[in-house]
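Cross-posted from the bioinformatics board.
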Amino acid sequence: NAGVTQTPKFRVLKTGQSMTLLCAQDMNHEYMYWYRQDPGMGLRLIHYSVGEGTTAKGEVPDGYNVSRLKKQNFLLGLESAAPSQTSVYFCASSPGTWGTPLHFGNGTRLTVT
Amino acid sequence: RKEVEQDPGPFNVPEGATVAFNCTYSNSASQSFFWYRQDCRKEPKLLMSVYSSGNEDGRFTAQLNRASQYISLLIRDSKLSDSATYLCVVNLAQDMRFGAGTRLTVKP
């Protein structure tokens, strides 16, 4: 049982390049989330999804797009990367029922030069 | 005002000390609450949920005060292995919001 898997683990982009981060979960969870973590800022919610085919904006959605075409996958896209998007990105999932915690992936370290 | 605010820390304590972390949240409609632990360069991991009546798990005790919109975590008899960043998490409807975290270092 892999839980939540993120790919890639590391990536370096140049300003203006695009990329997609993949999150996959094998726990049949309804809810999935993308967070970014920066020093001293804690985790900030980018986008989330409460089910297949649905997405919603979090605290810091600008510059990112997401898709949830399949229940087990949640994709985070950067169309035109900027140095301000240098961060560690975490994906998480949960069953969605009241009081259930998040399960996290190992994170993706992204550097934009 | 941030939705979830924590003590800025860092806390540096000797082994065996008791240490308390505090967290406040701004939305009174928040529904569930958690403490997570995060080790350096790792993903956050659930430490414990926080229940209205308060709950204890070994050396760890969590308290919730809905009237004051306040959550706390108490660690007794701290160990070297407790060194980590502790994150307060608040669930409102469909999203989960994190505090910035408080870093704890336990020294011999």
